[in-house]
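So, could you explain the following?
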Amino acid sequence: MSWHVSPEMATSYRVGELAGARAASVEAHVMACELCRTLLRPSDTVALERLAMIWDGVEDQVDQPRITFIERLLIFCRVPADEARLLASAPSLQLSWLVALLSVVGGTSLLSQQADRFTLVFVVLAPMLQVVSVAAAYGPHLDPTYELTRSTPYPTTRLLMLRTVAVLAVSLLLTAAAALTLTDEWAAVAWLLPSLALVSVTLLLAKWIDLNLAGSVVCVAYLFAVTSALFNDATVRSIFGGPVQLAAIAVTLVCGLVLFGPNAERAQIRRRS
């Protein structure tokens, strides 16, 4: 080697006064030179405050959670950063879930172009997908942040309602986009009000039972009610006609009054240990 690190240069490097190409040269040199490496070992002359600052910076960079696209979008929409983090951590807003949802509704809508029978399947399936999305927004089985959120002072009911609004908005948007491809104009909108009614019933049941269980109960009851029609010559209008739409409006209003009315009991969503 044609040169070695001088004691003065080593001291300058240790205290952070050496930068740029000179610092890079020292770092490259000591990789192969044991003698010069001894000059850079920690000693009483090292600025311990600087070392602590560097280490804190490394820890902050390693421990900093990655900001997802959904979280950035929520912050862009003026949602507070702390609430954006709580909302974006919902399983129903993860990319894998959204891709799966879009694949189901998109695939069913494409199949409906080939056979009218799949149009009915789409309309029957769409409300249940909204319930599943909302049911997966909070709970001990699917939510990776469940234990963290239940140990914080943030109100559980508020968190659930915020996640429900965010999840439902995204889910309804994706489903509506797929519904626009249906050739039957009534089928393209017939699923919306039943979806809101089923979600409302799920949230109401969640006042007394676990949200995941509430969603399962609602989906099973809904499937039991409509499955027989799928094996008969039923049409979209015969299943989701005017009476069903009016009933969906009534159910949504009643559940809304119970959940948010002025005399409603502000019961917390049940938490499983």
